[in-house]
Amino acid sequence: MTALRDIRKQFLGFFETNDHRIEKSSPLVPDNDPTLLFTNAGMVQFKNLFTGAETPKFPRAVTSQKCVRAGGKHSDLDNVGYTARHHTFFEMLGNFSFGDYFKDDAIKYAWDLLTKDFGLSKDKLLITVYHTDDEARAIWKKVAGVSDSQIISIATSDNFWAMGDTGPCGPCSEIFYDHGDKIPGGPPGSPDEDGDRFIEIWNLVFMQYEKFSGGKQTELPKPSIDTGMGLERVAAILQGVHNNYDIDLFKNLIAASVEESNVKAQGEAMFSHRVIADHLRAASFLIADGVSPSKEGRGYVLRRIMRRAMRHAHILGTPEPLMHRLVPALVTEMGDAFGELKRAQENIETTMLEEEERFRKTLGRGTALLDSATANLKDGDTLSGNVAFKLYDTYGFPLDLTQDALRSKGIDVDVDGYEAAMKIQKDTARAHWSGSGDAGADALWLGLREQFGPTEFTGYERLTGESQILAIIKEGQLVSEAGPDEAVQLLTKSTPFYAESGGQAGDKGSAVFEDGQAVITDVKKFVGDLHVHMVTLARGHIKQGGNVRLHVDPSNRRTTMSNHSATHLVHEALRRVLGTHVTQKGQMVDGERIRFDFSHGKGVTAEELSQIETQVNQVILDNSEATTKLMAPDAAIEAGRWHCSAKNTAMKFAFSLLAMCQTEKIILIRSNYAGGHM
């Protein structure tokens, strides 16, 4: 049997030998796309390279990208555990060309890897092409030597990819594996294509065109390649099984769930163990990437995933919290490939335990509501759909759990009313959804980002700088100039001003231009890497295209830096006094004060608080010299003491908190904690 970890390694190695650069998986919280809730495909981290917003530093790349599809339009949550291939978390293997090779090489690489390196029989493979893509069909016949019957033309959008209503797009070519005639289902394009016999394993996207508003389409000057192959799906094939939950990874996670719950994986319990194994992966990776369970946004999706798994632990009859006890098994399986799991293991376990203890109390209240709502119902009566939905939405009871609880009493549930309430909730959520919440999905900022690229931040080297004014925004609209007493937002090509990020307030200062001056009251970060200045003009007129001299208030910067360093001192002292389970849950830092939020199962005693204060003050009194270094994440982690500021997720950890920060540069502060930094 070929282990999943070996398949991942073989895929990456194959493309590395073909001059591809192995890139690490990007975080599940997208760095460069605030319109996405979670990273859901391998190309997300390369989006700016494909659109031309950034210039590629390398022409070819290969990744094994961690993905989550459990919120928004890409949600498989309700199917997970009951079908052969639905997951909330999965790995997407992909190779990418940024204007380098195109269809010929992409097809040859795919075919050679599948039939030579993986050893799949070409008779078990089917190819689809877009119905007008005669070029791809001819290449497949030449490279693979397959018959016309093995190449199926598809006229739907399933075989034509587009980044959006406008922008890069192109035809696709999908590769399907035939699991055999013992499994129902037909080939792609047939009436029974939704069966499980023919399974898509790899999609090759030929990014060939640029689409404009109005439908016009032109050839891209440098066509590119974007591919995606589900690691779990190809592992099932290579391990001789049909169901993803039968591959080695899931068998081992399910075995751990069986051992800890003392319930065999058979009958209905098998589905519960599958849900637990899948959701364990998704929840653990989300926590490792800085997401915490909450009532909104990403945190709400994480909580749904966790509580769905915890419901199934309850169904299994486990008397004590289960999920946190399974984290070591996951780290054993995937920690070598994804070091963030190892570094965040303690935080994951603590978060799991706290959430499951909280959920068990919630579950009790939900049971009380159900008992109250059905107290006057008798055999043959029907429970209101609104009550059933409240049980689901507020207390985490899925519809089937409510139905099961009432079945023995002969009470039905108004399913139509339940689904109507669910639809109202989804429609409301969709109407209010504005992206990830980092900067919103404001088309104005996305357009400016695409037009001008990211803001160049120069604030590590100096506190003043001159730059061109790229855009002036007033009340959400672009304007060409602004005058005295007007409050506007200013976008410049470069800036020494630090933008609000990770709980740290933006810099304050002033702007001087040709015939006037303005006060900069704040700086915020939009769409990931645009530093936008909040400006009130004192005198004169400021114009788009002109130059401006930017001055950061050095006193405010200095005290903000010191306060930021203080948060790390507090964090470390908390972990030393209260225990290493303590993790940061948020912070606020400006030039006047700090607020540090952390997880701890009980209140801090007066004695503990005194110890924490003493430790922090002692380090401050040491007054050690501080130094700042820009380093790659791995080098900083190896150094042992580090501080990490991620672009959008803004994860900040004390030196002893070993957790992965996946960004191109990090700031390492040494010298016994003391001093300031950004």
Kindly state the mean pLDDT as a whole number?
Answer: 84
Strand content: 15-25%
Report the CATH superfamily of the largest domain. Answer: Bira Bifunctional Protein, Domain 2
Poorly predicted sequence stretches spanning 5 or more consecutive residues: 432-441, 641-678
CATH architecture designation of the largest domain: 2-Layer Sandwich
* Radius of gyration from the alpha-carbon trace, in angstroms: 27 Å
Structural class by SSE content:
alpha+beta
**Global geometry:** globular
Q: What's the helix count?
A: 18
Determine the CATH topology of the largest domain: BirA Bifunctional Protein, domain 2
Number-wise, the strands total: 28
Oligomeric state of this protein: single chain
CATH class of the largest domain: Alpha Beta
The domain count comes to 5
Largest sheet at a glance? 9 strands, mixed
How do the strands and helices of this protein lay out in sequence?
Blueprint: H1 4-17, E1 21-22, H2 47-51, E2 60-68, E3 70-71, E4 74-75, E5 89-97, H3 103-117, E6 125-130, H4 134-144, E7 151-154, E8 160-162, E9 167-178, E10 198-211, E11 217-230, H5 231-238, H6 248-261, H7 268-288, H8 297-315, H9 327-334, H10 339-343, H11 345-373, E12 382-383, H12 385-395, H13 399-407, E13 412-413, H14 415-432, H15 443-452, E14 456-457, E15 464-474, E16 477-479, E17 481-482, E18 487-492, E19 494-495, E20 509-513, E21 516-526, E22 530-539, E23 542-543, E24 547-552, H16 554-578, E25 584-589, E26 594-598, H17 606-622, E27 628-631, H18 633-639, E28 666-669
Parallel strand pairs: 1-2, 6-7, 12-13, 14-19
Antiparallel strand pairs: 2-5, 3-4, 5-11, 6-9, 8-9, 9-10, 10-11, 15-16, 15-18, 15-24, 17-23, 18-22, 20-21, 20-24, 21-22, 25-26, 27-28
Helix pairs in contact: 3-4, 6-7, 7-8, 7-11, 8-11, 11-12, 12-14, 16-17
